[in-house]
Amino acid sequence: MVVRGPLARLDERLSRALVDTVPRGLSEAASDLGGPLVALPVLLAAMAYAYARGRRAAALFAGLAMAAVPLLVVPLKEWTARPGPLEPWAHGYYPSGHTATALVAYFGAAFLVSRRLVPVAAVLTAVTGTGLVLRGYHWPLDVLASCCLGVLILFAASGGPRQGK
User: Before 70, cis peptide (omega within 30)?
Assistant: First the structure.
């Protein structure tokens, strides 16, 4: 389904229609928001803030959530071996590590600092995923799958649903 089939073909057609519809510099800058050099310092600063405010467990769980991203994304990339939009000879594009990193880092930071920052986290994650697709680094389904994975990681790190609340 991810590599072959009607959904994959639709994904590929959509990608071909979207790639390079904005200047490459813009789409590259957007996709860089999900890179570890940009997203991790944001999360680390939020973790330090939460730790200083006495929310040590929350800071720890945010860090564990981020550590889970490569532990889950890398094996999934190996398992699916999906080729890239602009590099059909290369494999390992599903799911998008940059998107999962952005989602976990920015939402994790928002949850640690202020829930009012959740819309900012959503925008940063959406910009990252959009940039990855528009630049041709990832298929749309790669980004969507990473969003789902990132939400599951954050949900698990938060302790899941709370009973009686």
Answer: no
pLDDT of residue 59: 96
Are 31 and 98 in contact, with CB atoms under 8 Å apart? yes
Rounded Cα gap, residues 15 and 12, in angstroms:
5
Residue positions counted in the chain = 165
Here the tokens at position 68 are 């889970």
Burial 13-50 (b: 16+ CB within 10 A, else e): eebeebbeeeeeeebeebbbbbeeebbeebbbebbeeb
Partners of 83 in beta bridges = 91
Mark the ranges of the chain whose per-residue pLDDT is less than 70: 1-5, 160-165
> Which structural domain, as residue segments, surrounds residue 85?
24-157
The predicted-structure confidence for 69-83, as pLDDT tens digits, reads as follows 999 999 999 998 887
CA gap 67, 154 in Å, rounded? 11
pLDDT in tens, 107-119: 999 999 999 999 9
How many folded domains does the chain comprise?
1
Asked whether residue 14 is assigned to any structural domain, the reply reads no
Does a structural domain hold residue 66?
Answer: yes
